[in-house]
Design goal:
- The structure holds two protein chains of two kinds.
- Chain A is an alpha+beta fold.
- Chain A is 13% helix and 30% strand.
- Chain A is globular.
- The N and C termini of chain A lie far apart (67 Å).
- In chain B, helix 2 packs across helix 5.
- Chain B starts with 25 loop residues before the first strand and ends in a 10-residue tail after the last strand.
- The relative contact order of chain B is 0.17.
- Classes of the chains: A alpha+beta, B mainly alpha.
- Chains A and B meet through strand 4, strand 5, strand 6, helix 6 and strand 13 of A and strand 1, helix 1, helix 4 and strand 4 of B.
Chain lengths: 409, 172
């Protein structure tokens, strides 16, 4: 036995091996065939040799392998594997329309022109010299709902949302720098990806909380999230926060780009097509317990995320009986506007089928709707801004499955 | 504690430069503005010189577009561009695009997908004309150019309504 072993045997026989010591050594330190595992054995094993030294860039433990779920055009954050509210930058969701460009920051330039006194080109160093602001908020693709079957994890239901502490310059500072014309009411934001992505944005948003950001959780942006600089429109549909920003043009009318006409619009039941539906409405989802977990009867903390593009979440309610009754969940402070907030609620599962769900309310009084309410309001043809209440059913055996029955066409 | 709010106004520089600016960035040249300013607006602003009709466009379509969009603009590997189903299902240029100028803007900047921005302005006008003819929106021999394209009225234009929701509790 090691001298470090804190046992009465070692103390009483200090300095002299006992018969018991010899038997213990013969049985081996790890995985003794004839005896049960020694409690705390791994706690001892790793003390036997020095570990790796400091390095320049840490990696996750080999036992930790979170993954985005990539498709040809997007990748989804593994919401069920995350426990806080900041999404690690390498797990932030992606949505691209022409792939990810590789941009040399030394040659990066942002042109601001149109209805301005001084058409100006800013390089990255210029942008970083302006007074900086940091803001923690979510991004969400407005197409962030997949109505999968029972074996659908949160990642696949709505993994096109993530949260970051963004740092950059207020767009209003750039507009002041170039002498923006007060009569300008719209601006075109354009990216330098192969889609040369463009969206028209009201200048109201520029003078509210729009930013040009160059840092993601304190570090440079990831290439998939817009390196070296992108537009950030807190609370608005993700497509409008144009990545790889190369140009801003101020004007007095919208440009009617492809993304704001044939895409990202809402064909309603009355035949009209709603355009410029920018704001992401209040939403929540339980991330744990969720598919593919299997749980045992007893106490579990129901956990999830809630958010609203209009401002702060004021409360999240949780039901464990399929919506018959609701209780207030606890919100993890600080509750920030236009940001994911963590909600938690204790639940004693006594066994037997159950259905758990969450419902968010934001500071404007808006309550997250059911799928039926949403469909009744919009008709059957819309694809964007679908934020229905979702649920997880628990079978008698403890399998947690997505409540797909709640989202029937 | 993370900042709970964001300042709405910019910080003032310690000493006032021209009109209270920081003196950052450099003046853009006309040449670089012209090189980047490729957008086309519904009133036609931004359309370059050039012209094309459906016959011109058919040659480009055959060589460059049909591989994804299909020989007739539907049935390809990507969403159809041709179709006049009145209920907008599936949505196409013919039943869902409100502005013809967007066709020029989008094809010019983003198509073909494997080599975006490589078509000449004549080629883009031709492809635009071909698509509009196939969707029965303009006559077979119509020429599309900077004057005629903004005048095309798309069947879907009247359907588009800017978001008029007032917020609060309503779900619309």
């Amino acid at each position: 036995m090691s001298r470090r072993t804190n046992s009465r045997i070692a103390q009483s026989k200090r300095g002299r091996l006992t018969r018991r010591d010899l038997l213990a050594r013969a049985a081996g330190v790890v995985g003794a065939a004839a005896t049960a595992p020694v409690a705390g054995q791994q706690s001892i094993d790793t003390t036997r040799r020095p570990g790796r030294g400091p390095n320049g860039l840490d990696q996750r433990s080999p036992f930790v392998t979170p993954r985005r779920d990539p498709s040809s055009t997007s990748s989804r954050t593994p919401l069920q594997d995350l426990r806080g509210t900041i999404t690690p930058a390498d797990l932030h969701f992606e949505r691209h329309h022409g792939g990810v460009p590789e941009i040399d920051p030394g040659r990066y330039e942002l042109l601001v022109h149109g209805m301005v006194d001084r058409p100006t080109v800013f390089n990255l160093a210029d942008l970083q010299r302006f007074p900086a602001t940091s803001r923690t908020c979510f991004l969400e693709c407005s197409g962030n709902l997949r109505r999968g079957g029972p074996e659908t994890p949160p990642q696949m239901v709505c993994g096109l949302t993530s949260q970051t502490e963004w740092t950059g310059v207020m767009l209003s500072a750039l507009f002041a720098e170039v002498g923006a014309d007060p009569d300008a009411t719209w601006f075109l934001a354009e990216g330098q990806d192969a889609a040369v992505m463009t969206r028209s944005i009201p200048t109201e948003k520029a003078f509210d909380d729009a930013m040009v950001v160059y840092a993601q959780n304190g570090d440079a942006l990831m290439p998939g999230n817009g390196y070296p600089a992108r537009l950030l429109l807190p609370g608005w549909e993700g497509n409008a926060s144009v990545k790889w920003l190369r140009r801003i043009e101020l004007a007095d009318q919208p440009f009617m780009t492809r993304e704001e006409t044939s895409k990202y619009t809402d064909p309603l039941g009355d035949g009209t097509v709603r355009q410029f539906s920018f704001v992401m409405d209040a939403r929540s989802i339980i991330t744990d317990p969720a598919y593919p977990r299997v749980i045992e009867p007893g106490w579990h903390e129901i956990r999830g995320l809630a958010w609203s593009g209009r401002g702060r979440i004021t409360n999240v309610e949780v039901s464990v009986d399929g919506g018959d009754s609701w209780e207030q969940a606890a919100l993890q402070g600080p509750v920030l506007p236009k940001a994911h907030v963590r909600f938690r609620h204790p639940w004693n599962w006594t066994g037997g089928p159950a259905e758990i769900m969450s419902r968010a309310t934001d500071e404007t009084g808006y309550v997250q709707p059911t799928w039926e309410t949403l469909r009744a309001a919009r008709g059957p043809n819309t694809r964007y801004h679908q934020n229905p209440i979702t649920s997880w059913t628990i079978t008698g055996g403890g399998r947690v499955l997505f409540g797909s029955e709640r989202l029937q066409a | 504690m993370l900042a709970a709010s964001v300042p709405a106004a910019t910080a003032q520089p310690p000493s006032t430069g021209t009109q209270g600016t920081f003196g950052l960035g450099r003046a853009a040249t006309t040449a670089e503005i012209e090189a980047l300013d490729i957008d086309v607006r519904p009133d036609g602003w931004g359309l370059p010189p050039g012209r094309g009709n459906a016959a011109d466009g058919a040659r480009v379509w055959e060589r460059t577009c049909r591989v994804c969009h299909g020989p007739e603009g539907k049935g390809g590997t990507t969403a159809p561009v041709v179709g006049r189903a009145p209920n907008g299902r599936p949505p196409t240029v013919g039943n869902f695009w409100p502005y013809a100028t967007t066709l020029y803007d989008y094809i010019n900047r983003a198509m073909p997908r494997n080599a975006p921005g490589t078509l000449t302005s004549d080629q883009v006008y031709g492809v635009v004309a071909w698509i509009l003819v196939r969707n029965e929106i303009i006559p077979d021999d119509a020429e599309m150019n900077a004057e005629t394209l903004p005048q095309v009225v798309m069947p879907a234009r009247a359907r588009f309504v800017p978001d008029d929701r007032r917020g609060g509790r309503e779900v619309r």
